[in-house]
Amino acid sequence: MPSNAFLLEERIPAGCHHALLLKRGYALRLTDLSGDGNVGLLAFNADERSERYNMADTLKAQHTHKLALGNVLYSDMGRPLLSIMGDSFGWHDTICGTTNAAMIEATYGLNDFQLARNGYYRNGRDGFLMELGRWGLGRRDLVPNANFFSTVTVDDEGNIALSEASYQPGAWVELRAELNVLVILSTAPHPLREGPAYPEGEIEAGVFWAGEVPATDLCRTACGENQRGFENAEAWFALPDGGPKA
Amino acid sequence: MSTLLRQETIRAGDPFMARINAGQRVRLVDTEGNEAVDTFFFNAEDPRERYSAVDTVRRQRNVYLTTGTELVSNEDRTLLTIVDDTCGRHDTLGGACASESNTVRYAHDRKFMHSCRDNFLLALLNWNEDFSKRDLGPNINFFMNVPLSADGGLRFADGISGPGKYVELVAHMDVLILISNCPQLNNPCSGFNPTPVEFLLWDA
Ligand SMILES: [Zn+2]
After folding, report:
1. What residues of A are in contact with residue B128 (Cβ under 8 Å)?
2. What's the domain range around A210?
3. pLDDT averaged per 10 residues in sequence order, chain A, 246 residues
């Protein structure tokens, strides 16, 4: 997907928050320009915002604790919100959530607005809330987020660690909307990232038209679970405005 | 000497909700073994503060829950601590079963089977109608075995619990405990045969 074909484009500095309405069939391409980036993501059905990305349902339906090419991000209502239709990265975290102000200060030191004005160290929890609040959502809607461009491994005893594989300058992932999706992003650092330097890179967020999902689609055919999930998504659109198409 | 305040049997497939005050100790007993006890917590004074699976995992740097695990809220505060555990480990990434996820995981015709989500919503709305689905998040599955693998996999495995195994927790603040004694018949978590769970509450 060449970047000159983006219909919408934004560059999000590290630590900031952003939202976009991604209608069905459009896709969001995120690129970690510096390699040191992290994109926390929440997703909601824009037509019924109590329906939202559900970490546990995503993991158990696809027998995975990482997100990669061919996976979908399930809502709590048995429908895919976003499909990972392209992915140069390979292993995105789902199980660590985001940072808060105290965690950021403990890792990177005190650097608040008083000290640094707009260069202050932002955290994920506050960024998510500031963005959720713009859409009439709040604390109840801040569920476990996905973390793109951060790889978290789990050993046999269950211990977790942020992997050096997370550092991939230019890494990109493409997320196709299977419903009309409100996407909420925070580019605050991953909660397991170590200091002392707060990340500085930018995330490029570009939207393009992905088109109808073919029957042979990689995400749809990845497993029987996803086949049924896509059928559930189609059922959501089974009653179009103005009656059925001829 | 601690005083037993309450003892109740939660039948197979039933919901349960109760208040646990700071300092009180609760025990959940897997009476017949292999049961999955889907459990969630709220701050009793401010239910917008609730159990957070990812903050619990992130703080202890481990995905399994056992003795010593602090159950952490979405405000990064400790709700309860697991103080005793004869089972060995518990899941917090598998979530609760629901009719919607049942259609994805098993088959469209499993939609009308009883589920933990139905239990959770019924118990919450009977407790206080200000609650809704938005108040729920990924829960704890006591006695359930969901191993994660180094290559990124996750599976629902045969239980490692057994008859009489129990887990004990002490509350750090006044909390509401929400339980669904899982009715799931489509996977091995309940040994394909849901069984009762015992709830015990002491003043200390
Ligand atoms: Zn269940």
Report:
1. none
2. 10-239
3. 80 98 98 98 98 98 98 98 98 98 98 96 98 98 98 98 95 98 98 97 98 96 98 95 83
